[in-house]
Structures are given as C-alpha cells and as structure tokens.
C-alpha cells in the first residue's frame, strides 16, 4: 500500500472512532433520560445496570455509525483542505477519486460489517435488552403504579391512586381491592393518602394508609326473599397493609416470550414470518368474502316467507326492487323492510370487523417488511454518508469540530426526519415498505453524486466569497444600466426637427 493511502487512512480512522463513541455516548444519555424512572431507586446490582447499558449501546449502533462516518469524513477532508494537503496532492497530479479510494474500500468494509451486525448481533441484543428491561420494570411494583389507572400486576390485588408526590413518594386517594378470596369486590380499602415500600428481602409490600376506611361484605347464609347483605365498615386514621409479593426480586423472564417480535429476528426469520403472514391474510380475506356472500342479503332468495308465486318470482330478482315491493302483501312490507335493514346492518358490522382485523394483520406484516429492509438501509446509509461527507469536507476546507459538526447534524437530521416520516406512512399502509424504507437514502444519493462532482472539479459552492462577489457583480451591472451618458442636442434640431 502506498504511503499516501496510509496517510489518508490514518487521518480518517482516528476521527471516525472518536466521533462514533461520542455519538454512542450522546444517544445513551438520551436512553438514560427516558428510562431513569425505571432504574433509580430499585436497588439494582451494578452488573445488571452494566448489562443493560451494553445491550442498549449495541442497539444504538445503527444510528451512531452513519453519523460517525459523515462527521469523520468531513473532518478528515476538511483538515486536509485547510492545511493545503489536498492542494499539494492535486498539484502532484493525484485526482480526488484516487485520494478517496482507500477510504471508499474501508467504507465498503464497514458497510458489509454493519449488515452482518444488523442481521446477526442486533436481534440478539434487542432480545436481551427487551427481556432485561421488562424484568427491571417489574422489580419495584410501587414505582409502576400510575395515576388514574388500576395496577393489577400484584396477584390478588388491584390498586389505584389519583396522585403522587415524587419527592416524598406520598400517594393520594389510594384505593385497594383485595381479590385474594376470589369472591369479587367484597373487600375494599380507601384512604386519603399513603406510603408504600418493599421489605429488604423483596417478599412483602408494606402499605401505610392514612385517614380512610375499609369496606367488607359479610356472607349471608339465608336464601330467598328474606336474604340480607350484611357488611362491616371500619374507619381508621392509620392502617398498615402488608401484601405478599412473588416474582419481584428480578427473576429473569424466559426470553422465548419476546423471541417472536420482529426486532428479534434475522433475515431468514423475517422472510418466513412475512410469507406466513401474507398467506394468513390471504386466507382470512377469502374466508371473509365467502362468509359475507353466504349471508341472506347476497342470496338470490330473500328471508321473507311470502306464499304467492309472484312474490317468490320477484324475490329471485333482487335488483328489481319495485317489482318485489308490488308483489309483497301490504301487511308484510314493514316486516320485509325491517328484515332487510337488519340484514344490511349485520353484514355491515361483519365487514367492518373483518376490515379492522385485516388492517391490523397488514400493519403487523408491514413491521416485518420494514425490519427486513432496515437490515440493508443501515449499510447503504453508511456508504452514502461517506460520499456526502468526503467531498463536502474537500469543498468546505474547514477541519476541527466547528463547521463539520454543524453540517453533519443538519444532514443527519434531514435524513432522520425523512426516514421517520416514511416509516409512519408505511405503518399506516399509505405506501409500501420497499420504497418507503429507501426514500431517505435515495434522496441523499443525488446529493452525494452532486457534491462528489463539484469537489472533483474544485467547485467553490461552499465559499461565501463566491456568492458575495456574484452579488456585487449584479449590483454593479444594475448601477451601470441606470447611469446613462447625457446626449448633446443641436438647438437647430429643436427649432426645425425636420432639418429644413
């Protein structure tokens, strides 16, 4: 390998590694900000937290890698342009394509590695992350109780609160239904406020309630009209309720429960499930059509039990409504109308229900198709971002973390917004998965080709002086057109314009 290639690779690898880990760190901080309530105050072991962060970091690689390639390529060629290294290379007769060639090969290698990572490693880490995060979220039940919603994850109890003070962890308007006796809502405890905490061995949930009452229905052995419904109502200023817990000491959930999610599959599994869903949707659609056609409203004979031959003949021609109405006796017209309306409503409800089910199945299949294409779009995005960043850095000729960071963030946000919008359209079944998942890359591809062409021909499209000089030139031309030379007029021409 030539020394020039080694120099370019060394100039590129350092910024790429640095920007890659910086991007991962920033995205990881976003994850911690989102799930901080699920991690803090649960007494998790450091190894559990470290394992969760490792799996999270692996899942953030598809977002961090393209951004790192874009930023590193801009920085590398920006530094080389700022210190006149690109000028020296071009003066020696080395074209820009030849300077970029070792990095093109390196980017192709990274793109192929990104594909195998997305197909092999990412499904495994997603499976581990989802199962571990679920276990962490279920460890502290008192932290999972949401305002205004019944919490039913504790066996035998249903708990609801209307408010919470996150600074003191005080709960307000507490309502606890005790279903341990399997007799319905016969044991209810209501309190103005309360506190909850788990014991050290994570076996019991201790609930201290203030200013409330307990309602308990008593069993009555009497039957018949003289049966009564005795109950007991106990008021209290302070009461401690101890609830036995099971399964909240961070027991690892069986990963097979999450294995069928589309994010935990490789290409072969996604292809298999997508084809299976397509066949299932086709069979369900055929069954729905057959079922609707068998209803009375689509039959050749009506449900009206007329006895006259003319009425039966009219019923065999369902589109001749007037003839049908004339041959039905007056007393049976109202029943016929009501029967037809009932049948039409029934068919309409059946069609709406079938359509809702099919739409859900189609959206589920679209998720598999999106994940299938995402395995390739990651690698393609890495390749496109290099061909945007490298020529852009050669045009800008500014290194460091100033201008490259601004330009990289703008391009990445543009790419990300288009990608997220396209995915939303795919989930809503507005567009298909094939063009939708590739729209963002196909939009950036012409930009990369244009920038590469301009950088090869030493274009100054990013030089502000070029635009300033163009504006000055336009202003100068406009001023010259408005300023005309005064003309000399012969007085004799004014007296005698015809010259006679």
Describe the protein in words.
The protein has 500 residues and is an alpha+beta fold. The chain folds into three domains: 3-138 and 373-456, no CATH class; 141-244, no CATH class; 261-370. It is 61% helix and 11% strand. The protein contains 15 helices and six strands. It has helices spanning 3-34, 36-39, 46-59, 61-82, 85-91, 96-137, 141-144, 267-293, 309-315, 321-326, 330-396, 403-427, 433-456, 464-482, 491-495; strands at residues 157-160, 163-165, 170-178, 187-198, 204-217, 231-244. Strands 1, 2, 3, 4, 5 and 6 form a six-stranded antiparallel beta sheet that branches. Helix 1 packs parallel to helix 6, helix 4 (61-82) runs antiparallel to helix 12 and helix 12 (403-427) runs antiparallel to helix 13 (433-456). The model is unreliable at 300-308 and 310-318 (pLDDT under 50).
Attribute tags:
extended; 500 residues; 15 helices
In short:
The chain has 500 residues and is α+β, with helices and mostly antiparallel strands.
Mean of the pLDDT scores? 78
The counted number of beta strands is 6
- Biggest sheet overview: 6 strands, antiparallel
Low-confidence stretches: 300-308, 310-318
N-to-C SSE series?
HHHHHHHEEEEEEHHHHHHHH
Q: What is the overall number of helices? A: 15
Share of β-strand residues: 5-15%
Alpha carbon gap, first and last residue: 91 Å
Number of domains: 3
The shape is extended
The gyration radius over C-alpha positions equals: 37 Å
Which structural class do you get from the secondary structure elements? alpha+beta
Helix content: 55-70%
